[in-house]
Design goal:
By secondary structure, this protein is an alpha+beta fold. The chain has helices at 22-42, 52-58, 89-99, 116-124, 142-149, 154-177, 184-197, 212-215, 256-275, 282-295; strands at 46-49, 75-79, 82-88, 106-110, 129-131, 139-140, 201-209, 229-238, 241-251, 308-311, 318-319, 333-336, 339-340, 343-344, 347-352, 355-358, 367-372, 375-380, 383-385.
Amino acid sequence: MAVTACTAYEPVSSGEIHTIDIDRADEVERRHALLVEHLANTGDDGLLIQRPSNFAWLTCGGENIRAGTCETIATLFIARDARVVLCNSVDSGQIFDRQLNGLGFQLKERPWDESREVLVQDLCRGRRLATDAPRDGLRLADKELADFRRVLGEREHGHLRALGRAVTHAVEATARTCKQGETESEVAGQVAHRLLRHEVTPVRLQVMADGQGHRYRHWGYGSDAIERHCILSAVGRQHGLHVAVTRTVCFGQPPQTLLESHQLASLIEATGIYFSKAGWEVCDVWQRVERIYEKYGVPEEWRQADQGDILGFESSEIPITPHCTHRLQTGAAVAWRPSVNAAAVGDTILIRPDGCEQLTTTGEWPQLGVQAKGTAIDLPDVLCREV
């Protein structure tokens, strides 16, 4: 049998070369300048960034996670006059072609069989550095970076709107097409498939069949078959940002107890959405939400599960808790997900100067009109499908 040598691949066409996003490059420069000013204030010579959320913030949506894994493949070294990517020679080409094209980053690389830690140690030697991940001898600065990261601009808002449509479509389309008798795992796979098709990474998936959530509020999915009704919930990530959404589907007529619990959970969600206003402390919003639980005779229900998060480059930048004194800002993204008995609801909003913008609505799902302080808020109802 004749063996022929492998020929080189043809050069990429101009259509395969990613054009430089000038606006993104300018924003990266601005964020670098913010860090340089911060370094001057702290007296540090530089900063190491390894956490994916901080990497995504500084690069305006880049990722340092190997696709299909949770493994980080690059560290950023930030100094007053440079921003340097530390990675191995296998990943460097993809990072610069697909994630950081034209953004002004420099490269230090090593062969794949040498640890990236060698590069990091070389840069640390003789310098006073801060870091976003615990490291002996370096000052931990993750809380400081979180303050930068939580301020979302119009660029992020555009990405969040697109991501909201994608995650909502994945959940709602699955709820409209899944079959009675399929397992939770099968349905979770359908949601994941729809997310991945649009290059959205599933961060959290929940499929809770026939009241599963009443017993286990943080249930993921399992081998139980869906016979009567099901709650589908997803958190998706794209461009480093996160959006959360929850929907309920029923085969045939819903049980009255489910409808009543869903309506109460929706009233609680509407209250949270209405009072999520710029300048309000989270604990003040919480008091209004807790009051609805008490008023309708389920004062202990909020203790059964978390109620929501301020999200962004982390799926939970700040959890919504009774004593949280964080002050909400215009442009912040908030995900509410209250639950009552077997019912759970959830949507993501964007706080605007004149109210809130719902990011997880498609106009293709039955709506439930809810009143909060005399303001009508349309929220997702239970989707009833014929058996």
